[in-house]
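Data card: per-record layout.
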Amino acid sequence: MGTITKGSEDIEELALTAFIKMQLPPHSLRRGRLSISDILQDDPWWRSLDVGTHQQIGRLIRKNFSKYGEKSPIPAYYHILSDEPGMYIHDEDYKDEKSRDLVYHYTDLSAFLGIISGTIRLSNSMTMNDKKETSYYLDHLFEAAGTMLAEKEKQELDRLQTTYYLLYETPTYLMSFTENGDDAAQWERYAYGGEGVCIAFDKEALKIIAAKNAIQLDYVSYYRDYSLLPDTNDLMRYIRNKAFPRKIKNEKELFDYFGCRSALFKHPSFRSEYEYRMYYATNSYDRKPRSIKHEVTSDGRIREFYEFEWETLTRKEGFSITDVVPLVILGPKRKVDRGILQRRLDELKHSWKGEIKDSDCPLR
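The structure for this 364-residue chain is written out next.
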């Protein structure tokens, strides 16, 4: 894509994110020399970027490897090879791997007790505080396709868009996590101003357990240019040639697929949250819910959610619940007494033996 001019600050930010992600130990390490794409090939965030952006990021990292190393919160896990620009080698001596395997969920004390008791709750995205969030991806997907289609093709695009919003709006049930532990912004926004808790989950264990219940755990993408998104090409190929992507067999399944994807995209202004989402869409062709839907009335609204019994699945997969939830952090404005909390946990007769610690955040 040539010299970086317009949008250079965005590329700088993306390059730093890619550098940090490179330092996260891969679940299955291949020996030898790797490119950035080799290292990040399974990361949904990396896959959401187009090839041109990959190339720009690679050039920046090669040029500024030392600078990014100084900015990174973790030591360099891969080193650049000076004799082969763009290739990286794994540092066998890097030891501090486990710390980056955690994701965090900010919530209130009641929800924490429910989770430790064995149930995880996924809430209906349509009843979330920001309803626009659920349509952000779809709005931009249709808009980007419209800028590249011929006038006759736009008529079919309009039909698909109208049909989707009238008939196929897919409720997605999800639970949010972040890579940011004990973070002031997360405490204020998602844990009742710091009065709640921050629950640490082992990411890989959680992903395995969720998959057994037809639930996905993926990284949220903060994409800007939807004209370069592969999903936009899938939509345009269907409009032009009636060609379905992947294993999709009909138009309804195509809508279901886009409905699932919508859970994994947010406005770029939220990028600092580094969010993961555990989710499924209720009428998805490949993610059938295996749990029971519940409803509660609060704040004048009916809130829908699904629960699944994660403790039973945990034992079946050879984990303990402490393996999955090794830590809970009490908020900087917590009101609960540590002794009373411990007694309440003991009364639940669970097998959790994780660590409880106080927040280091200065939020007061």
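Known properties of this structure: Residues 1-6, 94-99 have pLDDT under 50 and may be disordered. The CA atoms of residues 224 and 289 lie 31 Å apart.

See the next section for split statistics.
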